[in-house]
Amino acid sequence: MKEQGQESKAPLAKGQAGFGLVEILVSAVVTGFLTTAAFYFLSAQNGMGARGNDQMKSVNLGKLKMDSLKVSTYDELVSGSDTVSERYIRSWHVTPMRNGAGVLNGRKKIELKVFWPLSGEQNVSLVSLRSDDRYKDGWP
Q: Which of 1, 17, 23, 107 is deepest in the core (most CB within 10 A)?
């Protein structure tokens, strides 16, 4: 006879008493793989973002220096280098150009390179030409 408030429980079949050790270990391994993959993906994204920022900053720093070299007088254009923010190194090389006969033609080639060695051997290069306005009037 059953008393009130008591329900009869059917006996559980073998293996249906809950999660077994094997299932718990499999779920832990799967969770570990997913966590590792997510961490790797996020850290790779962070690294790519930092490299992109470095590259964009170096392009902007190169453009700033190239603009300052373009507005300086033709005779003052000389090779040099400097360091910006103790991270980016700008180096520029100015070469007077010659025509086919080897005579100076009133143009200088400016090759500018910005690199940042702290995060690997990465660099950005810019090239431009600058002419001497005196050559427009037939000088010399």
A: 107
Is 88 in contact with 113 (CB distance < 8 Å)?
no
Beta-sheet strands, E only, within 1-140? 80-84, 88-98, 104-115, 123-131
Q: What is the DSSP letter of 129?
A: E
- Residue 69 three-state SS: helix
CB proximity list for 65: less than 8 A, separation 6 or greater: 82, 90, 92, 112, 114
Comparing CA positions, the residue from 110, 106, 111 lying closest to residue 132 is: 106
b or e along 28-45 (b: 16 or more beta carbons within 10 Å of the residue's beta carbon)?
eeeeeeeeeeeeeeeeee
The three-state secondary structure class of 79 is: coil
Q: Which of 5-14, 64-73, 96-105, 130-139 has the lowest mean pLDDT?
A: 5-14
pTM as predicted: 0.61
Read off the tokens for 102.
């080897």
